[in-house]
Specification:
The protein has 325 residues and is α/β, with parallel strands linked by helices. The protein contains 14 helices and ten strands. The protein is globular.
Length: 325
């Protein structure tokens, strides 16, 4: 179900009790590089370095209001959702167990442990980690926090509310797609405010499940082999998210890891912001569509900045080259 305007406003009150709104800046060098007016929404400026924190705060606040706060929670993540859950769980003194796939970002794992999370590595991708989390829920008295839920969407939609209120008449907004909460939040706000902004989803060219599903208008699984955009490494779309995306998104653009690496460099050079792969994907998509967006006011969602230091160093130094053919 798509959250209402009231749902999102209520979520905003919850979010702002913990953190301020994040900025949206029109960087002259970024505009010059992309050849049009560009507004970057900096979700890499939240207390956990990514937009997901908004959903976790909203979800836990609802548990508290309902008097159903569990003795412990469990979830699966590639990193940012897990940090969101760890941050919110610590505020309510609730133990959090988070499942990540093997080979997950070391720095994201370290950040989750610093929030008090019990971290378990299982499986080769996010879907395997999620299935293991669900299995553990049946074995232990743990509340499973999903990666897509109306409360999470309402929470993360607050960044879109900030953006679309602050910057009038945005023609096109580029939004990265992981499991879908961020882009569904953008759809909800666009519709609630009665705007005509085109919303463009961005996926990895090495994790095309949502692109294929969008085209087929049905759930299609696809391998997730991206080396750089772990936040978009989705093998199995969420059916509820897909339904909203099919109805509310103009198109979906696929970006390669090499294009994402170039966008990370562009963002650092033009804004001096550190961005993870998924966080730079919107800029990569806008660069790919440079001729299409000329003369339009666009927004790019910089969804997060949690990138391992050695990976970021390799990208900025020009040493990253995708091994995917």
């Amino acid at each position: 179900m798509q959250p209402t305007h009231k749902d999102i406003e209520n979520a905003a009150q919850t979010v702002y009790s913990t953190m301020p709104p994040t900025p949206q800046y029109c960087w002259p060098l970024l505009c010059e590089r992309l050849g049009t007016e560009v507004w970057a929404k900096h979700e890499n400026h939240t207390p956990v370095g990514a937009f997901k924190i908004r959903g976790g705060l909203t979800y836990f606040a609802d548990l508290a209001r309902s008097g159903k706060m569990p003795a412990g929670i469990i979830g699966a993540t590639r990193g940012n959702h897990g940090q969101s859950l760890g941050f919110a769980a610590r505020r309510y003194s609730v133990p959090a167990t988070i499942i990540v796939p093997r080979g997950n970002s070391l720095d994201k794992n370290t950040a989750m442990r610093a929030l008090g999370v019990k971290l378990i590595e299982h499986g080769d991708d996010f879907q395997a980690a999620r299935e293991h989390a669900q299995a553990l829920t049946g074995q232990q008295p743990l509340h499973m926090v999903p990666s897509f839920h109306p409360l999470l969407v309402a929470g993360v939609a607050t960044y879109s509310l900030e953006l679309l209120r602050a910057v009038k008449h945005i023609d096109t907004a580029y939004v990265p797609i992981g499991l879908g909460s961020g882009i569904c939040g953008m759809i909800a706000v666009r519709d609630a405010l009665g705007l005509k902004t085109d919303i463009v989803g961005v996926v990895s060219a090495h994790a095309t499940a949502y692109a294929q599903s969008f085209k087929a208008k049905r759930l299609v699984e696809a391998p997730a082999t991206t080396e750089l955009a772990d936040g978009m490494a989705c093998r199995t779309p969420d059916p509820d998210a897909l339904e909203l995306i099919v109805k509310g998104v103009d198109r979906i653009v696929q970006v390669t890891d090499d294009e994402v690496a170039a966008a990370m460099c562009t963002l650092f050079e033009c804004t001096h912001n550190t961005c993870e792969g998924a966080g730079a994907a919107a800029v990569a998509a806008a660069a790919q569509e440079r001729s299409r967006i000329a003369g339009r006011r666009i927004a790019v969602v910089v969804s997060g900045g949690n990138i391992d230091r050695d990976v970021f160093t390799s990208v900025l130094g020009g040493g990253f080259r995708s091994k995917i053919t």
